Backbone:
């Protein structure tokens, strides 16, 4: 597919330099102007809502509402056609019925750089009209010299230029994570979970049917983008498996590429066909190809966000090995938690080495031997919830040379049954101090329960100190396994 | 082991009738008097805290604080020795150092019915003193005619007579779930998660080292107790594997017995030995024995509570088969969720049947075909979040004869981005109405996110309408698998 005007083809990545790739996608992720087609005075219509979201988010470029009747909307001049807008429009958001789309495509020729279709009803609808329309769109885009995002998707999220994600979108904190989601709804979940869990996105995209720009295109771009350090992806299928696999391989060599491939089962694949018109191939083929390429394969939205989070928080640290220490019992009664935590970690293949005798002696001095479990897991119940003892003991565990990473279980709901909030805060602070002082990674397991307000407040503070937090031991362990596997892949011993 | 006085032995269950078993445990779970040994004027000492918790919870029987110096505590007369207390004491809570325990045991002879040791430092400490003390305790209990709970545990939770669980315990809502936990800390988590998720316990116990009364004893009792409809258990090991396995088998034939066996891995088993002095055997042996006996084996605290919850909420309904329908997309964009939900369910062995053509026709009439996924999973995005359409469509899905249970995904955080709270409430209410009107079970998946206050409020309401709620699709699917497996076992086709 050759594009005569603004875009050179990006199908053959080898031919494009990193700079060319970045320039190609500039109008999509850093648009200077956005038109919204399909606004109306009915403020509940999606186009109107979307336009307001752009205004409210403080989008930094020009905004052009388009409607055949013209007039004014939200203080902005409404253009009756995209052709009347002065100059070139970088990005068009389309919220009109599928029947009106071909005429719009003609109007956009040589006028716009990229069109994003929220509009659905194409190949995923399963009717002939939808399929033919899709072919027509591709042809018109080629002739008109612009690229298509979608159809049937929520398009771009780009907080640096204040483009919110979707019609009810907001702007989150800016960081270095990128997401690519075939589904708009999953993209929305990723955004929301990001806000809740302190995952900071640099940009994101949902691309729906992907009839022109497809998952490999976005992967290549985010692979080339120096502002992005880790990519999380939700895929249902692809139109060009060979290209996708070779792209995943080259991108995974540059930075962590996490892929959740849905439609793995027969019934999931059937649903994917009705959702984004995707033809899903066998799960085994996908898994094998991803595993060989260094792609981090995950199984659900929880594992995807958990894994993005651990790479964001610990990706810069050198996690040298697989040796995990488990610390629990910050309030009385950490024994059972220690036993079951060991199971979860060991079953997923993590190594829980017995601490060196010198470490255990130091721990005995702090905690005493009666009622303590000190080999690893380490049960701090005998610290009497004294934050100085907790710090000293955890410090010894971190210093043990067989330990590469420490998992600490903190149950705020149970701590706050026994201790005043000030004391519990001092305990949480211990781990922030230890990470700063010792530089070895700490991962926190903090289950929901009673005292949710206090728990969330402490999680925010821990999170800002580069500590990743997970709601269950199993999820923490799985994220660590994914982190370690990629480290081994990059070192060449996977 | 024969007990001369209040207890006849319950080692040979076949010889005890249900009534005898219930009478045996009456002083433990329905005590008329409780003594707390180890209170002091230092209000931070655990004995003092525990005594106050008993008073605050409104325990209905007599409370006797014991301390060598006598005096008064919390408005109660302090006895200098348990021997001075008038009459028989049903239940003694012991919070004194291990060295003082043998003398106390002598004082308790013929005076008390059951002693619960919070005190730790016995076989789990790994020293000779601890082991010898434990043997001494067993001998003295036999001679003295009382039973031992523990040592090294939190003992009884019995909300009907207002005995809180542990020194910081409260009283939760009373229902029909029983818990048995070797670990006091895990018991506390089960209690707290119960409060958070509307699991209503009838009673619970943590039994630590279990040197006299052990897990099979508590299982037999709860098996016999007509107030209990489902039993959730956390085990680290046992002193008599043969007896435990035969007990589990007979109890699982009476009611659902859910068992989380920790210490499955080598490192977990080592931690269990330091925690409750348990010798864990091979995971495979345990799993095989449990599977054959109809015991529902679970892997972590989340699956244990999820499974107790689904039995509490749906155990009375006749879930006839394995046919699951998945409904999503209550706000825009349920497609990706539908695809991935199908994967999670199908991978765990649930059947997602294609809906009958008649059902799909009815759905098309309500939702239209463009943009809809209607075979199962069913994506309701085209309902425009209209609660009447959502009710009509979900009603048709429930009526489909291939469907035994419907899973509905509701993301309150995303719904509330688009809709006012009143509208979201009407949508939630649809499912309460449908369960009442149609009698087929609905399970809700409701992930945490933004708008936590509103989410928790709606979850409480759904929960009171016998709808079980899970935070992720995978956890819901796993709980349903456990429920179905037990139904098949009871029908004899497992």
Residues:
């Amino acid at each position: 597919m050759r594009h005569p005007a603004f875009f050179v083809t990006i199908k053959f990545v080898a031919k494009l330099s990193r700079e060319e790739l970045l320039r190609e996608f500039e109008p999509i992720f850093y648009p200077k102007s956005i038109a919204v087609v399909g606004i109306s005075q009915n403020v509940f219509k999606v186009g109107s809502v979307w336009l307001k979201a752009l205004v409210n988010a403080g989008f930094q470029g020009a905004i052009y509402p388009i409607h055949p009747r013209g007039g004014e909307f939200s203080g902005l001049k409404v253009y009756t056609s995209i052709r009347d807008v002065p100059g070139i429009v970088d990005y068009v958001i389309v919220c009109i019925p599928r029947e009106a789309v071909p005429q719009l495509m003609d109007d956009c020729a040589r006028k716009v750089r990229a069109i994003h279709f929220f509009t659905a009803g194409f190949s995923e609808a399963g009717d002939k009209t939808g399929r033919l329309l899709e072919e027509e769109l591709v042809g018109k885009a080629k002739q008109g010299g612009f690229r298509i995002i979608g159809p049937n998707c929520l398009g771009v999220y780009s907080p640096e230029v204040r483009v919110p994600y979707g019609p009810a979108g907001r702007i989150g904190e800016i960081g270095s994570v990128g997401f690519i989601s075939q589904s708009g709804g999953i993209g929305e979940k990723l955004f929301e979970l990001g806000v809740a869990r302190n995952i900071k996105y640099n940009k994101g995209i949902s691309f729906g049917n992907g009839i022109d720009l497809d998952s490999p295109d976005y992967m290549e771009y985010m692979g080339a983008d120096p502002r992005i350090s880790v990519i999380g992806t939700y895929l249902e299928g692809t139109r060009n498996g060979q290209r996708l696999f070779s792209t995943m391989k080259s991108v995974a060599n540059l930075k962590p590429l996490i892929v959740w491939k849905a439609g793995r089962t027969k019934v999931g694949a059937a649903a994917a066909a009705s959702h984004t018109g995707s033809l899903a191939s066998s799960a085994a083929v996908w898994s094998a190809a991803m595993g060989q390429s260094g792609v981090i394969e995950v199984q659900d939205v929880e594992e995807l966000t958990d894994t993005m989070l651990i790479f964001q928080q610990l990706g810069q640290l050198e996690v040298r090995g697989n040796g995990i220490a488990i610390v629990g019992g910050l309030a009385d009664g950490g024994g059972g938690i220690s036993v079951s935590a060991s199971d979860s970690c060991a079953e997923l293949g993590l190594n829980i080495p017995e601490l060196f005798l010198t470490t255990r002696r130091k721990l005995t001095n702090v905690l005493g031997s009666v009622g303590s479990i000190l080999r690893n897991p380490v049960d701090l119940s005998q610290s009497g919830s004294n934050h100085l003892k907790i710090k000293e003991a955890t410090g010894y565990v971190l210093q043990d040379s067989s330990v590469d990473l420490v998992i600490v279980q903190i149950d705020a709901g149970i701590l706050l049954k026994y201790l005043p909030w000030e004391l519990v805060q001092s305990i949480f602070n211990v781990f922030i101090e230890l990470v700063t002082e010792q530089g070895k990674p700490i991962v926190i397991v903090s289950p929901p329960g009673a005292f949710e307000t206090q728990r969330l407040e402490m999680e925010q503070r821990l999170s800002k100190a580069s500590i990743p937090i997970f709601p269950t031991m199993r999820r923490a362990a799985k994220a660590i396994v994914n982190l370690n596997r990629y480290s081994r892949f990059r070192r060449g011993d996977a």
Remarks:
- The longest strand of chain B covers residues 174-181.
- Residues 1-13 of chain B have pLDDT under 50 and may be disordered.
- Residues 473-491 of chain B form the longest helix (19 residues).
- Chain B touches chain A through 84 residues (CB under 8 Å).
